[in-house]
From TrEMBL:
The lineage of its organism: Bacteria, Bacillati, Bacillota, Clostridia, Lachnospirales. It comes from the Bacteria. GO terms for molecular function: phosphatase activity. InterPro entries: His_Pase_superF_clade-1, His_PPase_superfam, PGM_Phosphatase. Pfam families: His_Phos_1 (PF00300). This is Alpha-ribazole phosphatase. GO terms for cellular component: cytoplasm. Substrate binds at residues 8-15, 54.
Length: 186
């Protein structure tokens, strides 16, 4: 059995301002560093992380002495025209309203749609699990983004919930257990 800890990166300035932070490569803010340092997590055999600074820095704090593999496909959703904007800046935008009305199905203008994100993330997750099995890992951590974690949790879930219900707070996440090809979710 492999335990898979899905952990969202810690807090950034953009998170505090409630912005859509996708491809913007932000460092953790002071509050984010303090939050990550306050967490006491289970030791794992290997860590897989998005290449973006907020994930790399979170992984370095949470798992300081554990090998970290950078997986480009774990990056956050490309928010296109909505990148680094918040609700106040997007309120009244026709494309934003369409995105809300379709629960994201319309995709982000000049960015990714949810199917593209799910396909990219599913392939990354499968690669990670194969790698963990080949390396005989008993437990791994995936330090990634809210959108990435929502995609993994919604695609490989036991409970049927709307994708957006899987959103987690910074430095929190889920535990998945994979046993002989079966997946359990906690």
């Amino acid at each position: 059995m492999i335990k898979v800890y899905l952990v969202r990166h810690s807090i950034t300035k953009g998170n505090l301002e409630k912005r859509y932070v996708g491809s913007t490569d932000e460092h953790l803010c002071e509050e984010g560093i303090k939050l990550a340092k306050s967490k006491k997590l289970t030791t794992v055999d290997k860590v897989y992380t998005s290449p973006l600074l907020r994930c790399v820095e979170t992984a370095e704090i949470l798992y300081p002495n554990i090998y970290r593999a950078i997986i480009p496909a774990l990056r956050e959703t490309d928010f296109g025209d909505f990148e680094y904007k918040n609700y106040e800046e997007l309120n009244g935008n026709v494309d934003y309203q369409k995105w809300i009305d379709t629960k994201g199905a319309s995709g982000f203008p000049n960015g990714e749609n949810l199917e593209e994100v799910d396909c990219r993330v599913k392939n990354a997750f499968r690669f990670i699990i194969r790698d963990a099995v080949e390396n005989q890992c008993e437990s791994i951590a995936i330090v990634a983004h809210g959108g990435t974690i929502m995609s993994i949790a919604s695609q490989f879930r036991v409970e049927k919930m709307d994708k957006f219900e899987y959103m987690v707070k910074n430095c929190e996440g889920y535990l998945l257990e994979i046993d002989g090809g079966s997946l359990c979710y906690q």
